[in-house]
From TrEMBL:
Pathway: Amino-acid biosynthesis; L-serine biosynthesis; L-serine from 3-phospho-D-glycerate: step 2/3; Cofactor biosynthesis; pyridoxine 5'-phosphate biosynthesis; pyridoxine 5'-phosphate from D-erythrose 4-phosphate: step 3/5. Pyridoxal 5'-phosphate binds at A76, S77, W102, T152, D171, Q194, N236, T237. The modification N6-(pyridoxal phosphate)lysine is found at K195. Binds 1 pyridoxal phosphate per subunit. One of its GO terms (biological process) is pyridoxine biosynthetic process. Its main location: cytoplasm. It catalyses: O-phospho-L-serine + 2-oxoglutarate = 3-phosphooxypyruvate + L-glutamate; 4-(phosphooxy)-L-threonine + 2-oxoglutarate = (R)-3-hydroxy-2-oxo-4-phosphooxybutanoate + L-glutamate. This is Phosphoserine aminotransferase.
């Protein structure tokens, strides 16, 4: 059976070469007579996987030595709470930049802890969608500034990160490893794995060591960045299979020429798709052009009925999961690193046919 052109926003498509490698090693990893899922997370075979996953991430992102790479659980959503619990000192406040549903959830989780947070700018309800501009007034003495680099639902991406005095913390769940990055601009970066990294189950955290040190001792150990840093994320049983998949995906990225190479492929795919949207009056992009995400391409058709028909007919042709998020409707084509260029071409072809038949 042919693989689907899977436009899912996450869990999302993984590179076919990676899936084949995992398949080949499933019954017997490295001559051990068992899969990576079935062995101790403290044995030498898993240890080598753990180390390579971290090393590959360090290479791809040029992570400076004073940062730690942590593998946590609970998804990016758990980080929404762990960040204020770990990094907000007594009586301190934090700044939040809101550009959509995910950054809104981060601020909601922080408020739920009863702490005072400052919302600097909010474009969450803007249609067409965008991210806030550079005219932000940061709060002096804030513990950190939180931002979401790519709003998965609306399809708006931060192109240039704000310069802040306080550590900048970015939720990069839906665009991690899609473009080169200067990690030293950030105090912390985090991402759920299930879009550009691996299957669901592990959360990547890249944190400056002096920030991780701030974790209060009163927090349960497994909620502390410090505890993860000091124990190399191995204090309790780690989700070994997702980390192994991070290792394979990052290996694949290194073979593709690293993040410059991947960014070029992503930009080519996205440029073609946005050009097809712009060439037609039938399709309307939902993000302001300068903030268009190369990962999640969102657009509308003239009516919701036509959108439903579009999704259904595309699926019949093997192009799946094009339905926009239930909160906003419309169409969303998620074209992460692993999404093949041929799938974008197939979608553009189908868009032309559909317009000709229905406009
Ligand atoms: N942040 C962003 C930008 C996301 O896209 C998502 C998931 N779609 C989340 C956070 C939540 O991630 P998780 O389901 O891993 O908690």
């Amino acid at each position: 059976m042919a693989r689907a052109y899977n436009f899912s926003a996450g869990p999302a498509i993984l590179p076919e070469e990676v899936l084949k490698q995992a398949q080949a090693e499933l019954l017997d990893f490295n001559g051990t007579g068992m899969s990576i899922m079935e062995m101790s997370h403290r044995g030498k075979d898993y240890s080598a996987v753990h180390q390579e996953a971290k090393d590959n991430l360090k290479k791809l992102l040029n992570i400076p030595d004073n940062y730690s790479v942590l593998f946590m659980t609970g998804g990016a959503s758990t980080q929404f709470s762990l960040i204020p619990m770990n990094l907000l000192g007594e009586g301190q406040t934090a700044d939040y930049i809101t550009a959509g549903a995910w950054s809104s959830k981060a601020i909601k989780a922080a408020k739920k802890l009863g702490i005072s947070v400052n919302e600097l700018a909010n474009t969450a309800k803007d249609v067409p969608t965008r991210v806030p501009g550079n005219d932000l007034e940061f709060t002096p003495g804030a513990a950190y500034v939180h931002i979401c680099s790519n709003e998965t639902i609306s399809g708006a991406q931060v192109k240039e990160f704000p310069k802040t005095d306080a550590p900048l913390i970015a939720d990069m769940s839906s665009d991690i490893l899609s473009r080169p990055l200067d990690v030293s601009q950030f105090g912390m970066i985090y991402a759920g794995a299930q879009k550009n990294l691996a299957p669901a189950g592990v959360t990547l955290v890249i944190i400056r060591n002096d920030l991780a040190e701030k974790s209060p001792d009163t927090l349960p150990e497994l909620f502390q960045y410090k505890h993860f840093m000091e124990n190399d994320s191995l204090s309790n049983t780690i989700p070994t299979f997702p980390v192994y998949m991070i290792m394979l995906v990052t290996r694949w990225l290194l073979e593709k020429g690293g993040l410059e190479g991947v960014q070029k492929m992503n930009e080519e795919k996205a440029a073609k798709l946005y050009a097809a949207i712009d060439a037609s009056d039938f399709y309307n992009g939902t993000a302001v052009p300068e903030f268009r995400s190369p990962m999640n391409v969102t657009f509308r058709l003239p009516t919701e009925d036509l959108e439903a028909q579009f999704v259904k007919e595309a699926a019949a042709k093997g192009m799946t999961s094009l339905k926009g998020h239930r909160s906003v409707g419309g169409i969303r084509a998620s074209i992460y690193n692993a999404f093949p260029a041929a799938g974008v071409d197939a979608l553009i072809e189908f868009m032309k046919e559909f317009e000709a038949a229905n406009a």
